[in-house]
Each structure stands twice: as structure tokens, then as C-alpha cells.
């Protein structure tokens, strides 16, 4: 069966994709790995409880695996557990080291803002000083994002998001635009950046110019200037702030050492944030991001060695 998937892309599963998950299990030696951004900043920080994570899972074996892996990693997870839907899964197809993601959101699509408002959960928001929300969450609970971004703005905290996928920029443009004024750091890759540019009618594919334009979009507060960080695979990382662009080289990796690129973007963000929370300079944040993503792409799936070797 043809599933119409493309390399270096991320899509939401449609009905035609649903048989693919069983087909993968039957025909290939499939690895099952707990997903989510939560592991990346913790692995670099190595401080139990320093990061907290909220999302939605089902009451099934995959949900239990998510809780078990997150807790073992030292992450403070507060999941909303949906009793009527299975835990979300993401099919990762890898060819020549390049990945394609097909996400069947299931319970991940069922997060309720009421869960965020519970005192024990909102206490985590109040305690935090930095926030990161994946762009994918725009499709799930914009109300939750609104509460967090407005809290961050009101208390001079750092709010960050990711463009996450071309379809987010294209089909969820309106809700994304409502968040942009609150974003102090915007992450993305070159494909997402170019889609963002096209959707906004900027008529340029120049990643450096796009990064500058994103950084100069209106801000809700003047506490922090917006910084745009665009990764480009093996090409330099583009960082735009104050109307200027700097490019930072990535760590060279011989092609024979590339296992798969799944998780590279999340790993970069996790590494970047691990230094940002310590008040480090941008070049140190980028260097940490490049290190974390370099480690991940040499392994199968979103996995790490026990501890980082990063100075």
C-alpha cells in the first residue's frame, strides 16, 4: 500500500495511514521508544526534577511506558490520562539516515485545559522560569498555551516555541500568529522556515532573511528581544537577533556514522535550553544543541548514553 510519505517531513496520520503501524510491526524489526521532548533538556542538565512536563496519554501499556521512562529519567511528569483513547504513537520511517514522521495523536489530541488549571499542575507553571511548547500542541489546546504564554509575559519569564512542522505553519497559521508576540525564542528547521515565509507572503527562501523577519515580528512585551534559531541539518545554525544574523557550524559527522535523524531537532532544542537556563551566551547554547543532536543522530531513535560528555 502507498502511504504518500516524504523524507525529512512530519505529518498527522490520516485514515489511509492507520494500517501502516501494524504493517511496520509485522514486516520490520520495530523499536518502541518513549517519545516527547522531556528527555532532552534533562539529559544535558542531569538534575532530577529540574524539568517538568505535561501532556496527555491513554490508560494503556504505552502510557505506562511513557510514565516509567520519564520518571526514570528524572523528569517530573503530570499527565492527563484519557480513559477512552489509546496513547498516541508516531511511526518513524528511516531511509538512508533521513526520517519521516507519521503521528497518530490519539490521546495526545485530548489534552484538556482543565488539567492545566488544577492547583497541583498550575503550581508547576508558577514555579517554572522557562517554558517550551512544541508547535504540534497548537493543534490540541490553544487555550492551555494562552494561559502559559500570558503568565510568562506577566511575570517576565522566558517563553519559547518551535515551528515544529511545515503543516503547522500552513494549516494552523492563525493560532500560531496569536502565540508569536509572546515567543522570546523561536526554533525551527530550514524547511519549516521557508514554509513560514511562503505562508506569510514574504517571497524569499533565504533562511537568514527569514530568521531576521521572524525575530522582528511584534512582541507582546519588551522584556526580551526575540531570538530566532534555525537549524539546517549539516549546514550552519542560523541565529537572528537585533536585526543581525550569526551562523554557527555544526559538528561534522561522517556519513557512515549517521544512523537516523529522528529526534535531532528536539535534541538540539533540549541542548540549547540546558544552557539558556544557566544564563549562558547564545554561542554556548548553540554548541550544546549541536552536541546533543550529534549524539542522537548516531543512535537509533530518540535515545542517549547514560550521561553527556559536554563541557
SSE map:
Elements: E1 9-12, H1 18-27, H2 39-45, E2 52-58, H3 61-72, E3 76-82, E4 89-95, E5 98-104, H4 113-117, H5 119-127, E6 130-133, H6 142-154, E7 158-162, H7 166-171, H8 173-179, E8 185-189, H9 190-199, H10 207-215, E9 227-232, E10 235-241, E11 244-248, H11 264-276, H12 282-296
Parallel strand pairs: 1-5, 2-3, 6-7, 7-8, 8-9
Antiparallel strand pairs: 4-5, 9-10, 10-11
Helix pairs in contact: 2-11, 11-12
Explain what this protein looks like in three dimensions.
Its cofactor is Mg(2+). Keywords: ATP-binding, Kinase, Magnesium, Nucleotide-binding, Purine salvage, Transferase. This is Adenosine kinase. The protein is 37% helix and 21% strand. The protein has 12 helices and 11 strands. The mean pLDDT is 92.
Keywords, please?
alpha/beta, 311 residues, six-stranded mixed sheet
Strand content: 15-25%
Q: Note the gap between the termini.
A: 48 Å
Which structural class matches the secondary elements? alpha/beta
Number of strands: 11
The ordered H/E elements are EHHEHEEEHHEHEHHEHHEEEHH
Provide the helix percentage. 25-40%
Shape: globular
Average pLDDT rating: 92
Q: Biggest β-sheet, characterized?
A: 6 strands, mixed
Q: What is the number of helical segments per DSSP (H or I, 4+ residues)?
A: 12
* Radius of gyration, whole Å: 19 Å
Which blocks of ≥5 consecutive residues have pLDDT under 50? none
Name the strands of the widest sheet in spatial order.
Answer: 6-7-8-9-10-11
Amino acid at each position: 500500500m502507498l502511504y504518500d510519505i516524504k523524507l525529512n517531513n512530519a505529518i498527522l496520520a490520516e485514515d489511509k495511514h492507520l494500517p501502516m503501524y501494524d504493517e511496520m510491526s509485522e514486516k520490520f524489526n520495530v523499536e518502541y521508544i518513549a517519545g516527547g521532548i522531556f528527555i532532552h533538556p534533562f539529559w544535558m542538565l542531569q538534575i532530577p526534577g529540574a524539568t517538568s512536563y505535561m501532556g496527555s496519554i491513554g490508560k494503556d501499556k504505552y502510557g505506562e511506558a511513557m510514565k516509567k521512562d520519564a520518571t526514570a529519567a528524572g523528569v517530573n511528569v503530570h499527565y492527563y490520562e484519557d480513559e477512552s483513547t489509546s496513547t498516541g504513537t508516531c511511526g518513524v520511517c528511516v531511509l538512508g539516515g533521513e526520517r519521516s514522521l507519521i503521528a497518530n495523536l490519539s490521546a495526545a489530541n485530548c489534552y484538556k485545559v482543565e488539567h492545566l488549571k488544577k492547583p497541583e499542575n498550575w503550581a508547576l507553571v508558577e514555579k517554572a522560569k522557562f517554558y517550551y511548547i512544541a508547535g504540534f500542541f497548537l493543534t490540541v489546546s490553544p487555550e492551555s498555551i494562552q494561559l502559559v504564554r500570558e503568565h510568562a509575559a506577566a511575570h517576565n519569564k522566558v517563553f519559547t516555541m518551535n515551528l515544529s512542522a511545515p503543516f503547522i505553519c500552513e494549516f494552523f497559521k492563525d493560532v500560531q500568529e496569536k502565540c508569536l508576540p509572546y515567543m522570546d525564542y523561536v526554533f525551527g528547521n530550514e524547511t519549516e522556515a521557508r514554509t513560514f515565509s511562503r505562508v506569510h507572503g514574504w517571497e524569499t527562501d533565504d533562511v537568514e532573511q527569514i530568521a531576521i523577519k521572524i525575530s522582528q515580528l511584534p512582541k507582546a512585551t519588551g522584556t526580551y528581544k526575540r531570538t530566532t534559531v534555525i537549524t539546517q541539518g549539516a549546514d550552519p545554525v542560523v541565529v537572528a537577533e537585533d536585526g543581525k544574523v550569526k551562523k554557527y557550524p555544526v559538528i561534522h559527522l561522517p556519513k557512515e556514522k549517521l544512523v537516523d535523524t529522528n529526534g535531532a531537532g528536539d535534541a538540539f532544542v533540549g541542548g540549547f535550553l540546558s544552557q539558556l537556563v544557566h544564563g549562558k551566551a547564545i554561542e554556548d547554547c548553540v554548541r550544546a544543541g549541536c552536541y546533543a543532536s550529534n549524539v542522537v543522530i548516531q543512535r537509533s531513535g530518540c535515545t542517549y548514553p547514560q550521561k553527556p560528555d559536554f563541557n
